[in-house]
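On clarity, I found the account of how folds are encoded harder to follow than it need be. Since the whole study asks how a given chain folds, the encoding of that fold should be made plain. For the editor and my fellow referees, an illustration may be useful. An entry of this sort, consisting of the sequence and the corresponding backbone structure tokens, reads as follows:

:::
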Amino acid sequence: MPAAKGIVASLASSSMIRKMFEEGLSLKRQYGAENVFDFSLGNPDVDPPESFFSALEALVKERKSGAHGYMPNAGFPDVREALARKIGAEQGVSLTANDVIMAVGAAGALNVTLKAILNPGDEVVVVRPFFMEYRAYTANHGGKLVEAAAAPDFNLDIDAISAALTAETAAVIINSPNNPTGRVYNAQTQEALAAVLLRHGKNCGRFPYLIADEPYRELVYDGLTAPPVLSVYPHSIVVSSFSKNLSLPGERIGYIAVAPAADDKENLTAALIYATRTLGFVNAPALMQRAVAALTAERAPVEIYAARRQAFMEILDEAGIRCIKPEGAFYIFAKAPDGDDEAFCSLLKKHLILAVPGTAFGAAGYARFAYCVNERVIRASLKAFKAAMSAAD
């Protein structure tokens, strides 16, 4: 029997990031890992903090009955209470354990959220450029993705988002700090977006959810902070994970937090818990739930990524490649010199540099470089970048 037609159709445009990452593995086998400059995948190379290993060792040695069995689908109550305190402090609201659902990473959290809120044909507005998997996640649950352009500096274009809203709009997804641009949306912009969503809801009788995808919240530079969402818009939901701030992407542990002022919050949280079960997640990993609950005070090694950002920008500048300085996350979104991002990335690959075309994020003419690699690799890439740019002339 053939695979489902919808899946077959999607395979042609499936994750360009993973494709480039897998090509990088092949190039490393062929040329040696030290000669390949792989900036394709946002996979933190910084080890988790030592406190993670200490917490994990203590949990493994524990012989507590039921510690590795089923728990409520939303997660362990004590874990959710610990996360409620952390998230509430970040968001400027008072949360309880009932406002938090543990999830299988931010990706699992997004799928659970969209399953819980979408009716067939509902629309989800995203700001271009955007994390490419939003399209698949929305389609997974019968929704339609609607793209709104960002401002020239990659900030939110409030007018563009407003124009994209319809009576079928179920949600708007924002991602700050942004993947792929590194832009941090400021408080004034998010407040303006909240005002637009409130006005739209009053006019059409349906208030869209504002979903804030925040796995990079703690990776911000130059004294900036990622402003809160839950305290700005009552119908908001935060999804996040510990993949970036604790360097645990493979452990698949994240959460969903619902604004305490959300309409019919009890039904919404019940729907999120139901979706967690029926999508087959059942619950987030038990061991990782307890581990991250002990690490709520830990923070990402921002100074390491800031140094890498500076090194990468120096390399690109010397090679003649232009970009906007990222304010957070660990990506640089650079202009393709001739405007053809796919040709640019193909040229770079010939010089053993791996980047992801901006087309994959809905923004042709750019390339994304992930600088979550050792600074030595970044600095060693200068010769290859210069050679590629000379070949382009």
Remarks:
- The two ends are 50 Å apart (CA to CA).
